[in-house]
Inverse folding.
């Protein structure tokens, strides 16, 4: 289960967010993006010491400031069910790029058993460079 798929499934569910500076935010997840930036609604913010509280209708939290997220177990179960349903249609199919041939040998790159080929791996269209023979 990937963290972003878990977050996307958690939309409209309550969660607790603790930041690296110690503040905590309790609220309902509205949205998230690929950088784990999140929007919460009906938020209660608690100070680092736990002695001050603020109620906010909504807030935005930058993903790089998040220490951890606490998500209800029901959301985690929903993600597990989604992955099972998504994987039902898949079957074990062998082959594809870079696979093995019928004799279970790695796929070769030509008639001569590898990269070199007839030209000895010289590459290019021009013939290999030949040193001129010394004059006698």
């Amino acid at each position: 289960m990937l963290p972003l798929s878990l977050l996307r499934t958690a939309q409209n569910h309550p969660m607790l967010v603790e930041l690296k500076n110690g503040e905590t935010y309790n609220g309902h997840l509205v949205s998230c993006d690929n950088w784990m930036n999140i929007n919460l609604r009906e938020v209660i913010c608690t100070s680092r010491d736990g002695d001050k509280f603020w109620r906010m209708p909504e807030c935005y939290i930058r993903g790089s400031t998040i220490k951890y997220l606490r998500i209800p177990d029901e959301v985690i179960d929903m993600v597990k069910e989604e992955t099972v349903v998504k994987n039902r249609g898949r079957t074990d199919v062998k082959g594809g790029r870079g696979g093995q041939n019928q004799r279970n040998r790695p796929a070769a790159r030509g008639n001569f058993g590898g990269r070199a080929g007839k030209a000895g791996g010289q590459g290019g269209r021009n013939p290999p460079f030949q040193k001129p023979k010394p004059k006698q």
